[in-house]
Amino acid sequence: MATDNQATKVITGKVRLSYTHVFEPQSVDGGDEKYSTAILIPKTDKETLRKIKAAVDAAKELGKSKWGGKIPANCKTPLRDGDEERPDDEAYAGHYFLNASSKNKPGIAKPIGKDSNGKTKFAEITDTTEVYSGCYAKVSLNFYPFDAKGNRGVAAGLNNIVKVQDGDFLGGRTSLNEDFSDEDFDTDDMGEDEDFLS
Where is the composition biased (Acidic residues) (predicted)? Predict the structure, then answer.
């Protein structure tokens, strides 16, 4: 069975997160609460796209036992074309995207160097503002077959997230620096140790 899991598991290259709910589960359309994020994969990242296609194909093979011995003609797959499906969203231009979710909270961390064996060391991220829609990460995914109310296909399960880079907020939110960097604050009156309320 380990080989099946390996065949359906993917570690992405650097991707961008969108619609990110990874610290608190959310219910979509009244369904079960899940941790989730959309993952934007650059179309130039052929290796990640190749690995996803292979994992989806492996999940389809596993699904045959659920689907009466054959892959359905209208089998839904998670990978979608951002240029076609989100033509008005600049962040999705030049990307494929998929939605990944899990009932269990994903591991969320950042790399902090190497250990004595040359393996990457990680620090857990607990600050909920550090992983957001617009940041960049590498993500561990597992693809699995589903059969729900006549819908048959392959979905992406969310395992772990390693943040690798900050990015512009998606969804209209701006950073503190963007909002206030051009504002004039009279900092001379703000002595660091002064209690300005007294």
Answer: 179-198
Contact 24, 37 (CB under 8 A): no
* 150 Rama class: left (phi>0) / alpha (psi -120 to 50) / beta: left
| Strand (E) or helix (H) holding 9 | strand 9-11
Question: pLDDT in tens for each of the 198 residues of the chain?
Answer: 344 578 999 999 999 999 999 999 998 778 889 999 999 999 999 999 999 999 999 999 999 999 999 999 999 999 999 999 999 999 999 999 999 999 999 999 999 999 999 999 999 999 999 999 999 999 999 999 999 888 999 999 999 999 999 999 987 555 556 566 677 776 555 455 544 444
Cα 175 versus chain centre, distance: 20
**Which structure tokens are listed for 198?**
């007294």
